[in-house]
Predict the structure.
Amino acid sequence: MKFPTRLRWAAVGCILALVFGCTLTAHLSDRTVCRQEDITRIPDDAAFLPPAQPADTTDEKWVALTFDDGPSKNTEPILDILKQAQVPATFFVVAAENNEKYLPLLTRIEAEGHQIGLHSCTHEYSKVYSSTTDFWADIKELKKKLEPYVADPAALTWLRFIGGSTNTVSHRYGGSGIMKQLKAQAEEMGYRTIDWNVSAEDAAGGHPSAETIVKNIIKDAKEHNICVVLMHDTKATGTTVEALPEIISWFSENGYQFCTVEDLPD
Ligand SMILES: [Zn+2]
């Protein structure tokens, strides 16, 4: 069967528009979360990691579960699971346009004994990392937006850099020295900053299954007696919620005690 040339060009046009449209939509909707390709898998700056403890030097095993880029519709089920298991966690939050309506959940997060940490207001790398001034303006804006929902905004002194403290995405916008400058400024201002040594890799494209998330975590966690686990509670990470009960069981069965980031042993 032969189609007139004009029809064929129209079809090609439609396909191109569709592909471009989808790419653009995906790009825009992902702007306010850590995308796996922008996140250092395991940052290597020792100053921002939990203390290194070789597996045979201590009996104590601790795990801090951390959730970045929320709150979102997935935060509530996560809180339900944590409550049921009586496990504390830490939430490094954002206050972007697409998640602002979930900010009242911060009150529940605090009331149930979890820790709230600062992550970013907009989570847009190009804005946040365009200069150190822009970075601190973003944090200031975040604190302002959290204020109505937390007991004491001044007590929010823990910070996690978007993309991690050794990310290189920031270099595109703020130059190669920006992370070094920001780390020094954070310390001067009295912020405590932490990366992670276990990654769920749950922000990867194609939405990894709960099974893959559990597998990713166990692979990294086996190496450490003190684990800081990076997960995400965005609207896109429903499989993280699914995986959570098994993640908690694995750490319990392997002798880990749960704590917030601020309660990790030094
Ligand atoms: Zn993030």
User: Anything to note?
Assistant: DSSP finds nine helices and eight strands in the chain. Residues 34, 68-69, 119, 123, 162 surround zinc ion (CB under 6 Å).
